Amino acid sequence: MTFTAERYASRGDTVAFVVCIVLAVIARISPPEVTEPIAATIRGTVLAPLLGLQEFATDQKNSRLRYSTILLERDSLAIIALFQNALREENDRLRALVELRSRVPVEHVPAEVLHQSLPTDGLSLVLSAGSRQGVTPLSAVIVPEGLVGVVRSVDANSSVAVFWAHPEFRASAMALDGSLYGNVEPHSGRGLGVQVLELTGVRFGEDIAAGTPIYTSGLGGVYPRGVPLGEILGVASERAGWERTYLVRPAVHPASVSHVIILLDPAADLRAVFADSADQ
User: Fold this and answer.
1) What is the CB neighbour count within 10 angstroms for residue 213?
2) pLDDT of residue 1
3) Which secondary structure element, helix H or strand E, spans residue 181, and what is its range?
4) In a 10 Å sphere around its CB, with 0-12 CB exposed, 13-18 middle and 19+ buried, how is residue 44 labelled?
5) Rounded Cα distance, 111 and 38, in Å
6) Which of 140, 141, 197 is nearest to 166 (CA)?
7) Residue 192 in this model has a pLDDT that exceeds 50
8) pTM over 0.85
9) CATH, domain range 104-279
10) What number of other Cβ atoms are within 10 A of residue 61's Cβ?
11) What is the overall mean pLDDT for the chain?
């Protein structure tokens, strides 16, 4: 019985195969006006579910592509929105730096801040200008807001500058009208660290109001006269009958510095340059 059933099934498959071959040959040799209606009928009946599945698969593929495109556009817009303020601030700083360069009356060199001189040293930076550009040790480094620091060492095409927050930083300071003088150095008190400066050596009788701007005095032959150092925050300490020490908010925050100007003439007087900037 099993053998007979297998022979019957095999014979049925052969007959079906032969019928398909015959129909294929007839469809091949028949004119289009005969085959097209038959093909249309088959597509509308037998193949309709398969065509529907194919259309559904195509729609799913297009939907995934559109979804991926929307995600990419959304991510791009998110990145633009995230960095828009930073880019705007950097552009504003660069425009201010270009404007400052046009008003500085002495020889100077523009430079870009490359990186910290050492991974563990956050108080010094490598600048993209060196001895070939005329930079020398003890050249003042400024930005439109005021004094950044001073060049410590120089290579052929780069130099290392230290911030005002460096423990060895010192600068002779004054009020813009020259009514008072003192020395500025990093604040050594606990809690504030090097986030502020100290104005020392002020006569006890001098009462400086909070918010008074402090500038370099030009004494000492390192920093040009009239570069902003910061503004008075208040009294830090007093030596009765002798002198007062004031806290000074720095004019420049190290984290915001990306491009600088290196001054090559320490004897310059920049009071008019920065006084005009303050008025604007």
Assistant:
1) 17
2) 46
3) strand 181-186
4) exposed
5) 80
6) 197
7) no
8) no
9) 2.40.10.340
10) 10
11) 80
